[in-house]
Amino acid sequence: MKQVKVGIIGFGTVGTGTAKIILSQRELIKKRTGIELILKKVADKDIKRPREISLSEGVLIPDAWKIINDPEIDVVVELVGGIHPAKEFIIEALKKGKHVVTANKALLAEEGNEIFSIAKEKGLQVGFEASVGGGIPIIKVMREGLVANKMLAIYGIINGTTNFILTKMTNEGIDFQDALRQAQELGYAEADPTLDIEGIDSSHKITILASLAYGIPLSFKKTYCEGITKITAQDIAFAREFGYKIKLLAITKILNGEIELRVHPTMIPEDYLIAKVDGVFNAIYVEGDSVGATLYYGRGAGSMPTGSAVVADIVDIAKGTNSLPLDFSEKYSIKPIEEIESMYYFRFTALDRPGVLSKISGVFGQHNISIASVIQKGRSKAGAVPLVILTHKAKEKDVLEALEKIDKLPVVAAKSVFIRVEGQET
Questions:
Q1: What's a Gene Ontology MF term here (predicted)?
Q2: Catalytic pick from 205, 245, 253, 335?
Q3: Residue 280's closest CA among 397, 374, 196, 369?
Q4: Is the dihedral angle over the CA atoms 63, 65, 68, 71 positive or is it negative?
Q5: 270 marked among binding-site residues
Q6: Listed residue (257, 222, 420) closest to 332, CA to CA
Q7: Which among 8, 139, 219, 324 counts the fewest CB atoms within 10 Å?
């Protein structure tokens, strides 16, 4: 029987779930794998706060460095979050010859190149299944299940907070602020929800998935990021009229040797499976050249789902699975957002006069933008009405230039809105 001694740094939501699973599923793991996990130490700055789990005397300590410097501990689990001191904990643990498991997507996306380089030099493993998708085993799927595939595209709903907000807006017709307030009351959104609603959390996660998919260095600073704060109930309603839903999608795909890496609100056909993923659930669509389209669904956060992913990494390290170091040395370029091609949704606030559509379509024509569908609402006492247009594929650079001209037209009464559209062209 192989014994593996584990030290956990951080005893918050995920740390508590991880400790619970190690202790409660110890015999099951031993029976299935022949590996006995021993929780030797747990470190947290606050060792007096009541928790849902009781640890043996002396296991919970306030000093993380005692775990890192303990020669008996084989695997250090970093669950404190943030960049510092998490980075220092991980690097020092690797230098001490210990494998590391982390759920820290921000740290990996922003500083992971250095961390993986040190791990490779030391011949050690960094497990990070819990950093993307919570309990969805997407890292294992990409490293093992789809290892024989060239990855063509990944589309992910990988932030439960924003998915909950957009679901509420879609189902109840409420505005963004009301939906956010409900998310906060239910504990799905933080008091400061910036990382979620501005798309930063999703950007961290798609950065990691893109590096796994294409072997490129972690490229968070090159990831285009746009949140959901400008999405309105009106746009959601118009999307439905066209047969679409709006989701915050994290997207990476390879086209003609260039990689797209972006996060933004996206209209997708409502009959697509990923469009049906609602509430706090996550879903990740992965397309491989051999397997075709696959979809992975589940809880993207939470104490036990994320703890399950952490423990899976510990067991994989103990078994020697994924023993080869990750190679993020491919030299693909990241396509600037201005160079992508997409279909687009536009909402113009136009004066209710004859010839408005022809003026706007004339500018579109000058910039190689072809109209697919139009919704024009009836007359208004205020003198301005929404004019909604869905286009065929166009280059974003052309779209931005066209919008700059359209917004200056005397018949347009407010700044125009646009949302990118994914799916098959009609």
A1: homoserine dehydrogenase activity
A2: 205
A3: 196
A4: negative
A5: no
A6: 257
A7: 324
User: What kind and span of H or E run contains 419?
Assistant: strand 417-421
CA 139 from chain centre, in angstroms, equals 13
**pLDDT at residue 407 greater than cutoff 60:** yes
Coil/strand/helix, residue 197:
helix
**From the CB of residue 411, how many other CB atoms can be counted at a distance below 10 Å?**
18
With a pLDDT cut of 90, the percent of the chain lying above it is 93
Contact indicator for 249, 155 with CB cutoff of 8 Å:
yes
pLDDT tens string 96-143: 999 999 999 999 999 999 999 999 999 999 999 999 999 999 999 999
In 79-159, at which residue ranges do the beta strands (DSSP E only) sit?
Answer: 99-102, 126-127, 151-157
**Helix-strand-coil split of the chain, %, nearest 5:** 40, 25, 35
Residue 15 marked in a binding site = yes
170 is in an annotated binding site: no
Whose structure tokens read 């690797």?
94
Our separate counts of H helices and E strands in the chain read 14, 18
Q: Summarize pLDDT for 311-370 with one digit per residue, the tens.
A: 999 999 999 877 777 889 999 999 999 999 999 999 999 998 888 999 999 999 999 999
How much is the pLDDT for 380?
Answer: 57
Whether 381 shows a pLDDT value over 60: the answer reads no
Record the pTM: 0.96
- 140 counts as catalytic: no
Dihedral of the alpha carbons of 61, 64, 66, 70, in degrees to the nearest 10: 110
Q: Which of 271, 220, 213, 278 is nearest to 247 (CA)?
A: 278
Three-state secondary structure call for residue 383:
coil
- The domains found in the chain, sorted by start residue, are 2-131 (3.40.50.720), 138-299 (3.30.360.10), 338-421 (3.30.70.260)
Across-strand partners of 99? 75
* Bridge pairing between strands 244-255 and 151-157: antiparallel
Query: What's the pLDDT score for residue 425?
Result: 80
CB atoms within 10 A of CB 373: 14
Check whether 401 is labelled as a binding-site residue: no
User: For the segment 1-26, what is each residue's pLDDT rounded down to a tens digit?
Assistant: 899 999 999 999 999 999 999 999 99
Q: Which of 119, 238, 225, 115 lies closest to 173, judged by CA?
A: 238
